[in-house]
């Protein structure tokens, strides 16, 4: 079954509007599974890919981070492929930076 996409329109700057994708956890998990094993990508790449896939101008960064935290708790998708263990956000992930490093090393 295909995910229903939620796209909201918001102001960007003084005279422009922007469509913002609010992704589901499943959408984020699918993008994580598509990431190259053993290689550290960037969360921004995931957001850009989701926005392009669902024809939005941008993808909500807060929603993606919330989903990454939840996915790390369930260990339902390879979150370690996009969370840099040296960034502060890694401390919010289940297991922390060391867990991310171990998972990346195991895939190499």
Low-confidence stretches: none
Strand content: 5-15%
Oligomer: single chain
Total beta strands: 3
How confident is the prediction overall: mean pLDDT? 91
Q: What is the rounded distance between the termini?
A: 33 Å
The number of distinct helices, counting runs of at least 4 residues, comes to 4
* Rg, alpha carbons: 15 Å
Helix/strand-derived category reads alpha+beta
Order of adjacent strands in the largest pleated sheet:
1-2-3
Task: Please outline the major beta sheet.
Answer: 3 strands, mixed
Taken from the alpha-carbon principal axes, the silhouette is elongated
Question: What's the number of structural domains?
Answer: 1
H and E string: EEHHEHH
The share of residues in helices is 40-55%
What can you see in these coordinates?
This protein has 108 residues and is α+β, with helices and mostly antiparallel strands. The protein has one domain (7-107). The protein has helices at residues 25-34, 43-53, 61-74, 96-107, and strands at residues 7-12, 16-21, 58-59. A hairpin with a 3-residue loop joins β1 (7-12) and β2 (16-21).
Brief account:
With 108 residues, the protein is an alpha+beta fold. Helix content is 44%, strand content 13%.
Q: What does the secondary structure layout of this molecule look like, with pairings?
A:
Layout: E1 7-12, E2 16-21, H1 25-34, H2 43-53, E3 58-59, H3 61-74, H4 96-107
Parallel strand pairs: 2-3
Antiparallel strand pairs: 1-2
Keywords summarizing the entry:
alpha+beta; three-stranded mixed sheet; 108 residues
